[in-house]
Amino acid sequence: MFERWGLFAYRHRRVVPIIVLLGILGLYAAFGLRLDGRLSQEGWDDPHSDSTLAASIEQDTFGRDSNGDVILLYRAEDGHHLDDPAIQSAALKHLESLRQQHPDQIDHVTSYFDTHNAKLANVDKTLAFAAIGLKGDGEQTLKDFRLVEEDLIPEISGVKTEVAGATAVADALDKGMAGDISRAEIYALPAVAVLLLIVFGSVVAAAMPLVVGVLSILGSLGVLSVLAGFVQVNVFAQSVVTLLGLGLAIDYGLFMVSRFREEMDRGQPIERAVATTTATAGKTVVFSAGMVAVALSGLLVFPQAFLKSVSYGAISAVGLAALLSVTVLPSLFGILGKNIDRWAVRRTSRRARRMQDTLWWKIPSFAMKYSKTVTLGICIVLLGLTLPLAKISFGGINETYLPPTNQVRQTQAEFDENFPEFRTEPIKLVVTNADNAQLVQVYQQANQVAGLTGRFSPSQATKEGTTVLSAGIADRKDNERVIQDLRNLDVPDGVKVYIGGTPALEVESIEALFERLPWMAIYIVIATFILMSLVFGSMVLPAKAVIMTILGMGTTLGILTLMFVDGVGSGIFNFTPGPLMSPVLVLIVAIIYGLSTDYEVFLLSRMVEARDRGSSTDDAIRYGTAHTGGIITAAALIMIVVCGAFGFSEIVMMKYIAFGMIAALFLDATIIRMMLVPAVMHLLREDNWWAPRFVRRAYLALGHHEGAGSPRLDKQRPRPKEPAISVPAQAEIPEDTTPAGADIVATEEDAEFWRELPNRELSIDEVVVEKHATRSGRSVQEDAELVPFQELMRRLEAEKRRELE
């Protein structure tokens, strides 16, 4: 199927890119440009939790609690006093003008200057605040804030005014995320272009993955905007989708360009090179994207709209990256042909050197030579780095996710410290169906709970049998304990008490995540295991891949705990250590699992390809690693550069993802894929390729073996009843008289010999064979995909049998 598609793309090479380009640009113009107005700030919480129900009851009864939307914090300077009549008059005048200028946005204003409530100022009256409630509900609240934002700061002599509040914090988080996209476009893309130029040594070749990357970004934003028209899409999804779409699109393009140049180096005609590239690298790209999509689809088992929206968007981005790689690139290859190496900036003759002379051949050879030591040593190191995971803690999104230097965050922290009773994240008890005596009973029990900033108090008068009691929690670390104590209240018969507020939302969100996490793990492990079994024709290789992926994931999470919980590097990277946000942690798990499986597929697919041509296990390991090691390393380095741009995000949770991916990519592309995989496979030897008969039949049915002529597979295939086709006398292979260890290169005479076989039209370039003498029963090695004469003969016989069948 993939070979046929490659031929189709070649024959319509001028039409396919135009159609795809117009489609992507149309999608972006029609939907992508409207994305900002469609994104949501919500979706972090479990919509089925008691805290969500509490918020719904409160809003239906009393309307939205908007007291903490915007906080104006007034600080007297230079010996001034907030009780000064001139200051009070100026402050009141400014607040009144706000009401008049923005009647459609501002619902109410409560300030120290018009109430003289002592709770709204500190003891020496050098610090006071005004609370502004906005009319908008849901997403409209943030839009209302942006309409009034420019007019919030007054000019009052002797007073400095700063902005805080829940909506101000949300706006700062939103702006930080928006900066991530620009940073990727301004810094990451040029850096990736330089890396690709170094890898390929040619401007034209380096431009190919970038074409796919840019189109992927535009298409992903358009797809995300379309999704936002049907489901709630959190604003954070935009950064994640851009990161994955850009990184994977460039990686996939890198693999495709590398394989096409490899085929051209072998002297293949352009059409055949395009078809082979699509049938091999293109097929692997599609299956790799499928693995990543499966891992990301595991997020759909969670109730949070945030995770669902990221899953939808990221799956679309990965699918689009794969689609562009197998449609646009084969067509461009067909147009360019040998011009793929135009505008070279360095000599590319190194591509023709022997595989045995490369680092990627020597590293797995070393790992296999000392396989037991390498396996044990690497496992000890990885497990040691996993140990910090025992100290992991979880929390929710708040102002601490902004950089310590952020002005809104600093103002919010100062407000919380001086006015703890008015913190923007109180714990609430929504009490229904209670008479006065029952309400007093609940009230007295609730105030006996330790860890509160003050006593529970009604936020407003009882209405329709519903009362809302609220209080602050002194330390966020006590959220879970306080909520558990409140759950244990002895509630009178007939009375309903719902625990609400931000702390309850966070705790219940964490509980929902860890309730579903085992199901996600089971799903993605089983699904990827099945897919890899079909791709590799083995059940041992997928099991090994899953175990190594989990080992690498544990190491990555341990490193993240060291950084973001223990604070290693917090000063350098400008963030405050603290609890990890549980939804983002689950997202990291899905992304890391997908990426690790992605690189595993690229590595093992070439090993399986060599094995299907008759190589021994060790030769297949060297062959696969030698052909993909440099490409995987380059791909990981490119992805690290893209992640690095997001690592400078102002938002801590984006740093989680960026540094998590950097750690996982580094481990995967070096220690795990280059050393641990060869060492373990060497120890497993022939067991690597074991699979039940039904798996082998499925493998054959999917066509992964096409052109391989595999002895491993042929012995499973029923032999035809017809007698074997005899090879013409002139096709007898001359005896190999070359001294052991010497290289043999096919001559023009050898080429003529192969041209005499039926239906074979081969050029000298297609039959150049380098082989090594067989010693002590050791199997013949394949080098640079060139096979021994005996294997070519066996393949011709197999093709003739299939024609007769």
Automatic annotation (TrEMBL):
Keywords assigned: Cell membrane, Membrane, Transmembrane, Transmembrane helix
Highest rank taxon of the organism: Bacteria
Record Pfam families: MMPL
Cytoplasm keyword on record: no
Domain Membrane transport protein MMPL: 54-361, 480-693
Subcellular location: Cell membrane
GO cellular component, one term: plasma membrane
Similarity section: Belongs to the resistance-nodulation-cell division (RND) (TC 2.A.6) family. MmpL subfamily.
Name of the protein: Putative drug exporter of the RND superfamily
Organism: Corynebacterium spheniscorum
